[in-house]
Automatic annotation (TrEMBL), chain A:
It holds the Pfam family Proteasome. SUPFAM superfamilies: N-terminal nucleophile aminohydrolases (Ntn hydrolases) (SSF56235). It comes from Esox lucius (Northern pike). One of its GO terms (biological process) is immune system process. This is Proteasome subunit beta. The active site is at T4.
């Protein structure tokens, strides 16, 4: 499993992505404020987990390929196209790479969509979690996710999940980054450590 | 995210011989989810019911909640043989001690007996045990003795392979001073979530509530498990 906690959730009209901000090399934290939510296009973002180098490189390559593609078709690309480009790289180089990207965004045809590209598969899901911290919150997201949540509910759900994972996983920490994408565009937010929700701590 | 560490094994067509299935060679394990919660006046404990040898489910209705004394139970996870052996030894030791004392033993005593065995033989054993019960001095108590032989008292504790998936759920849903019904609800909800995600946990949920008045046991069958709205 890879180090990090990332999550993406669909709501009616868009998506919310969230991540922690810790980058470690062994036991040392080399960057405590890294933004793991990377832009692929105006209304398509991806969440990075696993090897930092691999994930960033995949995101940059797909960013370039999407730019070319969107000029060719003359309009904004579909989220499915971005996810397919990520999947193609992940699958072709699956033996050499060790990164998992969750692709999420908004397009005119399908609204808000979340795609999982783990190990080179491509699957659309209402929500997805990834990274080492995700193991600790599978139970929480299974219990708390409801279909048809509003934008504010989704944002709260994502922030709660990231906080819980950060408090249990040694490889996740720092601040929480949030990106909300809808028809109007993408809105980035950073929630500092002391503003994160707290839960029962023994 | 870490600098990539690559551990590559040579490509093989299959890792075990196709002639004999893997459960003939794998050890019996209670890859498991176990949980215990204290409440005012007692404890609630719960476990799944799956025992596996490799990918084969050797027992789908295992009882992992083992009585050690009248009001003290232990929840077993890890190697089935190791945990059964340790539980038998501690049952004997505690029974003897209780006759010497001429009164009911303390939960802390039982927990320390588990710790003594698990720590002394930590290299040979693979056992994660949660000891829970009620005694006159301190009421309901939960002690956890994970792999390695540490001992710590906690108001709520989870263990076993399925426990990783419910840490987040437990952190967000546990509040101090819950009632017995709330604890039963929390434990059965958490166990069903873990059983859903962990391949080594499953079957039915076995629950027990231990208090001054005795032990109440309960079984929740597969079709009666709490449901969650996931895709």
């Amino acid at each position: 499993k890879s180090i990090t906690t990332i999550i993406a959730v669909e709501f009616n009209g868009g998506v919310v992505l969230g991540s922690d901000s810790r980058v470690s090399a062994g036991e040392t934290v080399v960057n405590r404020v890294m933004n793991k939510l990377s832009l692929l296009h105006d209304k398509i973002y991806c969440a990075l987990s696993g090897s930092a180098a691999d994930a960033q490189t995949i995101a940059e390559m797909v960013n370039y390929q999407l730019d070319v593609h969107s000029i060719e078709i003359g309009e904004d690309p579909q989220v499915r196209s971005a996810a397919t480009l990520v999947k193609n790289i992940s699958y072709k180089y699956k033996e050499e790479l060790s990164a998992h990207l969750i692709v999420a965004g908004w397009d005119r045809r399908g609204g808000g969509q979340v795609f999982v590209t783990l190990n080179g598969l491509l699957s659309r899901q209402p929500f997805a979690v990834g990274g080492s911290g995700s193991s600790y919150v599978y139970g929480f997201v299974d219990a708390e996710y409801q279909k048809g949540m509003s934008k504010e509910d989704c944002q709260q759900f994502v922030v709660n999940t990231i906080s819980l994972a950060m408090s249990r996983d040694g490889s996740s920490g720092g601040v929480a980054y949030l990106v909300t994408i809808d028809e109007k565009g993408a809105e980035e937010k950073c929630i500092l450590g002391n503003e994160l929700p707290t839960f029962y701590d023994q | 995210m870490a600098a990539a560490t690559a551990t590559r094994f040579c490509q093989q067509l299959s890792s075990v011989s196709d002639m004999s299935p893997d459960w003939t060679t794998k050890e019996v394990s209670t890859g498991t989810t176990i949980m215990a919660v204290e409440y005012e006046g007692g404890v609630v404990i719960g476990a799944d019911s799956r025992t596996t040898t490799g990918a084969y489910i050797a027992n789908r209705v295992t009882d992992k909640l083992t009585p050690i004394h009248d009001r003290i139970f232990c929840c077993r996870s890890g190697s089935a043989a190791d945990t059964q052996a340790i539980a038998d030894i501690v049952t004997y030791q505690l029974g003897f001690h209780s006759i010497e004392l001429d009164e009911a033993p303390l939960v802390q005593t039982a927990a320390n007996l588990f710790k003594a065995s698990c720590y002394r033989y930590r290299e040979e054993l693979m056992a994660g045990i949660i000891v829970a019960g009620w005694d006159k001095r301190r009421g309901g108590q939960v002690y956890t003795v994970p792999v390695g032989g540490m001992l710590v008292r906690q108001p709520v504790s989870v263990g076993g392979s399925g426990s990783t998936y419910i840490y987040g759920f437990m952190d967000s849903n546990y509040k101090p001073n819950m009632t017995k019904e709330q604890c039963l609800h929390l434990v059965s909800g958490a166990l069903s979530l873990a059983m859903e995600r962990d391949g080594s946990s499953g079957g039915v949920i076995r629950l027990a509530a231990i208090s001054e008045s005795g032990v109440e046991r309960q079984v929740i069958l597969g079709n009666q498990l709490p449901k969650w709205s996931t895709a």
